[in-house]
Specification:
Layout lengths: L14 H8 L6 E4 L6 H10 L4 H14 L8 E5 L8 E2 L21 E3 L6 E3 L2
Parallel strand pairs: 1-2
Antiparallel strand pairs: 2-3, 4-5
């Protein structure tokens, strides 16, 4: 299994393409749960405060799902804990109650509905 990573992008160059991929419902997300001491919800809460890149990504996932930009089922969790770092599926995490996170704004995505009737524009 091969996943796209944005870590090779310099400085903050990973942010825009990562946020757009998270906002794209056609992209299946795979989240490595390594190091999530407080679980997904804890990472979301820290990300909403701007605490760390991975936490920020988890907050974008929460915002995208909470605003209907993607389904919770399109997010898959895994651990790289198998033999020689093989990927093992993480037990399915129940969808959190998004209302407990406060106001969650939509993420930037490749396509955003324009206020024009039926028009779609490319997001900058």
């Amino acid at each position: 299994m091969k996943f796209d990573h944005m870590m090779a992008n310099p400085d903050d160059g990973w942010k825009a393409p990562t946020e757009r991929m998270i906002g794209d419902p056609n992209v299946t997300l795979h989240v490595n749960m390594k190091g999530f001491e407080e679980g997904f919800e804890g990472a979301v809460r820290r990300g909403l405060l701007g605490d760390g890149a991975t936490n920020l990504e988890m907050s974008w996932i929460a915002r995208a799902v909470a605003n209907g930009q993607r389904s919770w089922d399109s997010v898959h969790f895994y651990n790289a804990t198998g033999k020689d770092g093989a990927i093992t599926e993480f037990p399915r995490i129940p969808e959190p109650d998004w209302s407990t996170f406060g106001k969650l704004d939509p993420v930037k995505s490749l396509f955003t509905l324009c206020p024009c009737e039926g028009a779609v524009r490319w997001d900058e």
